[in-house]
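Customer ticket, subject: "Can you confirm the structure for RNA polymerase subunit sigma-24?"

Message body: Hello, I'm evaluating your service for our small team and ran a test protein. I'd like someone to confirm that this is what the system normally returns, since I don't have a reference to compare against.
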Amino acid sequence: MAVWQEVLGDLVRTRGGALVRYAALLTGDVRSAEDLVQDALVRCFSRGSALRDVGAAEAYVRRTVLTIFLDGYRRRVRWDGLRHLVARPEETSGPEQSAPDRLDVHAALATLRPRLRACVVLRFYDDLTVPEIARRLDLSDGTVKRYLFDAAAQLEAVLGPLPDAHEEIELVTTKEER
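Agent reply: Thanks for trying us out. I re-ran your input and got the following:
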């Protein structure tokens, strides 16, 4: 068995659940998250990857999950703008759509735009600093701070007051400015 196959097996066995939970925070749906992780694993390991340890492989797969998520969102937005030209509506309204949705963090995250959601997940789930988030998303530090601030405001509209989030953002901002 090749080294990359062992690394893939170890990664899926030991960190597969964590990767799916990470992707679920981005997608808001466990099934979509499983598909997203599967796509990322295929993309990362389909050519006999040179990854030699689980830690490096997990970081690479997480980055790929984020990239696939953002690219997929762009495609969906573009397709939504064109779909009405070529097809009938896929959904019909029914009584199940009027049932109240359960309010939780996943639903609140789903209300955010993808970049804001990615910043929140990377900051509060991956515990990355603002410069690390900026580097991963190819943004400036100020843009990341703004996204985090805007996301906190939008999440407050759905979840209620989030004093810890504002304190965390202010703490990060003042600590990194020193």
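A couple of notes from the result: Helices lie at 3-27, 30-45, 54-86, 105-110, 114-125, 130-137, 141-159, 163-177. Confidence is low (pLDDT under 50) at residues 95-103. Feel free to reply with more questions.
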